[in-house]
Amino acid sequence: MKHNFGAGPCILPKDVFAEASQAVLDFNGTGLSILEISHRSKEFEAVIAEAESLVRELLEVPAGYSILFLQGGASQQFAMVPFNLLPTYGRAAYLDTGTWSSKALKEAKNFGAIDVVASSSDRNYSYIPKSYAVPADAAYLHYTSNNTIFGTEIFDLPQADVPLVSDMSSDIFSRVVNVADHGLIYAGAQKNMGPAGVTLVVVKDELLGKTGRTIPSIFDYQQHAKADSMYNTPPVFSIYVSVLNLRWLKAKGGVSVMEQENIIKARQLYEEIDRNPFFRGTAEVEDRSRMNVTFVMTNPALEEEFLALAKERGMVGLKGHRSVGGFRASIYNALGISSINALTDLMREFEEAHN
Ligand SMILES: *Cc1c(COP(=O)(O)O)cnc(C)c1O
After folding, report:
1. Where are the alpha helices (DSSP H) in 59-142?
2. Do residues 342 and 315 touch, judged by C-beta distance below 8 A?
3. N6-(pyridoxal phosphate)lysine modification sites (predicted)?
4. Is the CB of 144 under 6 A from ligand 1?
5. Annotated binding site
6. pTM for the predicted model, two decimal places
7. Which of 136, 71, 140 is nearest to 108 (CA)?
């Protein structure tokens, strides 16, 4: 058995893989594969309707918001958000907390004036800036709720009198969020929702259609909303596997139950990092992510040896991103406590063997 600590595409529950593979052979007794059915068939219409209702239920999405299943990943949203929400000659505010925020604001600069209200680039994005002013005339404030690469997470909502837009790619469905506090939430599926290929967008309808610019249909949220995410062929299989995963999440008790498990998993790992003299966390303690745990060794020369031992025990995906170094343990919803135990056991054994 492998312990998959990969940052994305990442682990999904084993039962989801089993059901998905069955559907590739015969989808719901139709005698057809999920890969070949028409997206206009009543079978798939039921799938996409269930996807929407599961998202609505699990995230407690209030009325007045559209739920969209798009393609192009979170990276496409970096452009679609300002395309649809930033008026011509308008301005938008961005909080820069890492690589993904920087990429998002770089794209937004193609559409209007961008205020970077704060940045933690001065200390390699190891913390979340807490005090900053947001211009009152900004169309929105964009923030990245979890910084997948740098291992920080925003637990207290940014304070602003303008609509909040959040890239929640790597912590969506991992903790309770108040959708009503947001104008738009987006997430590439491949971290906590499903396989790569589908991107979730939850958008407040009243914010749309106000930019004064012509938006090509394929990039226009209103077109996708009007067509119930069937403006063109949707990523049928990715949506189906997401449904399987969201059913699993619902059966577990939903997001608040998942959040409690995630708190316990993250705490156990951080406690070992803090206790064990061979390891050191890289993110500011109060801003530590519950999804992506970044840490290094106090003696970097030992890192290769530790990685090799982890690999022997079936732990994969632990190598840190090059911009942080060391290790990154991505501990998404589907990663069980037994995988955390395997990692913390190895850290203790490593300490004993080297003392
Ligand atoms: C992975 C990731 C992205 C990029 O997602 P793509 O779907 O590959 O475009 C963007 N933002 C965050 C927070 C991520 O973790």
Report:
1. 73-85, 99-108
2. yes
3. 191
4. yes
5. 40, 74-75, 100, 148, 167, 190, 232-233
6. 0.98
7. 140
Q: Would residue 109 show up in a list of annotated catalytic residues for this protein?
A: no
In sequence order, which residues have a C-beta less than 8 Å from that of residue 332 and are 6 or more positions away?
10, 11, 170, 174, 191, 192, 291
**CB distance 74 to ligand 1 below 6 Å:** yes
CA gap 271, 60 in Å, rounded? 32
- What are phi and psi for residue 224, nearest 5 degrees? -65, -40
Taking the CA of residue 147 as reference, the ligand 1 atom at the shortest distance is 13
pLDDT in tens, 158-167: 999 999 999 9
DSSP β-bridge partners for residue 44: none
Alpha carbon distance 217, 235 (integer Å): 18
The ligand 1 atom nearest the CA atom of 189 = 7
100 is a catalytic site residue: yes
What pLDDT, in 10s, does the model give residues 33-69?
999 999 999 999 999 999 999 999 999 999 999 999 9
Q: Cβ neighbours of residue 336 under 8 Å, at least 6 residues apart?
A: none
- In this structure, what are the phi and psi dihedrals at residue 196, rounded to the nearest 5 degrees? -60, 155
* Structural domains for the chain: 14-252 (3.40.640.10), 254-353 (3.90.1150.10)
- From ligand 1's centre to the CA of 41, what distance in Å? 31
